[in-house]
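P.,

For your records, the input lines for the assembly:
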Amino acid sequence: MEIPVTNIPLFKGCALAEVEDLLSSVVFQRKKFTAGSLIVSQGEVCDRLLILTEGKVVGEMTSPTGKSLKIEEMEAPMVLASAFLFGKQNKFPVSVTALTHASFMVFQRNDLMKMFRLNPRVLSNFLSMISSRAQFLSEKLRFHSFKSLKAKVAFYLTGEAGTQKKFKLKHSQEEMAELFGVARPSVGRIFLQLQNENIIDIRYKNVTIKNFDKLAELCNH
Amino acid sequence: MEIPVTNIPLFKGCALAEVEDLLSSVVFQRKKFTAGSLIVSQGEVCDRLLILTEGKVVGEMTSPTGKSLKIEEMEAPMVLASAFLFGKQNKFPVSVTALTHASFMVFQRNDLMKMFRLNPRVLSNFLSMISSRAQFLSEKLRFHSFKSLKAKVAFYLTGEAGTQKKFKLKHSQEEMAELFGVARPSVGRIFLQLQNENIIDIRYKNVTIKNFDKLAELCNH
DNA sequence: CTCAAGATGTCACATTTGTTACAATCAATT
DNA sequence: AATTGATTGTAACAAATGTGACATCTTGAG
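Structure tokens returned:
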């Protein structure tokens, strides 16, 4: 079940021989965990890169009294906490536990840096991964910066529409609700309102924008 | 008014001679803009790193009909859009305009990569910058992931308290309101509720936590 | 084509949060 | 110690969003 190394995002675009060559010139460990075992504890110093090559894990935050707060599942292939290896705060903000049998490749920071030197593509991949994550977070945060749900939806719709009047929604209302951080019927309600105000025509995933200007206007309130 | 190169985050920890040596071995441009002029347009391809070395600029998004949506001010020394040079989506998401007279150093991606090769500290600084940004965004987003304002405040308070029972708030209610993405009186209202429920004692910035368990409990709802 | 599972439209009602406003208190400077 | 500007406490009311429920429609598997 172990994924091939060329599928690991960090080694994307590299030939198998190239990766094997690279891996033979640095030190790293392979670690295996059984389902249910603790992989890293919240607060532990993050001085190594963990690449999940097999299995599924879950990250959760624990409050001072030991209650778990927030959960995020991750599946191979995945790099864990790449932002915490180099950032100012280099402690894991979450505990990570194996959900299934899980395998990791573990690189110390120095060895990772050495790989960057030896192979510019690996560096480029790492930069791309971490940048994409920042972009993803940034985009998600943008939605929260709008004042009302109507503004969020309006912004989303103008973005999805691009220059077209008619288009199909990529996401379900459920997914949009999650993206906007609201309940599902609230999204539906906004669509209903926009319909009644004659700004869009929506029937399931088929959207026609009837008044582009008004829609853009709504982004501001 | 131009800041010294050793103050630029990208060159932090480097000696002046070291930076000058480095800069002499790569190609880069210095660009100056007068107040009010457009520096980059939204949607423009981001293939270069912009380091603001003097002045103040503003980033704003424009909707399809040309209304400006969101504003973020930036002051020297500052690196612009570092996440967009390497991420998947490498177009500027905002337009940037000079607020005052502004100076930049401009590096093409290849030259930046060359500097990474020549000087590991520069690479390390860049990784740190971009990682810290991801961390910052992540932290900010965490607050939005709580269901209610009460949960956000409870989480914030447990974090600020650490292991102490009595402490002083670092932020004003205004700042907290901004962090949580709500109106200022809403924050005050929650404090009032927590007070009435005998969970905390708060008088202006002086907080005493009277029931740690209940506070932790609240983080979950 | 049929059917079941999932997605959507929509409602009534409960909660939460925003808005506006003003008085009380603090903090810093004189 | 007094004054002033910023912060905080608090209220009433308006508006937005959550909740739960249900009927209806779409879509994809068979």
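Two observations worth noting. Helices of chain A lie at 16-24, 82-86, 109-118, 120-144, 149-161, 173-180, 184-196, 212-218. Residues 148-150, 182-183, 185-186, 189, 204-205 of chain A lie near DNA strand D (CB under 10 Å from a C1').

Regards
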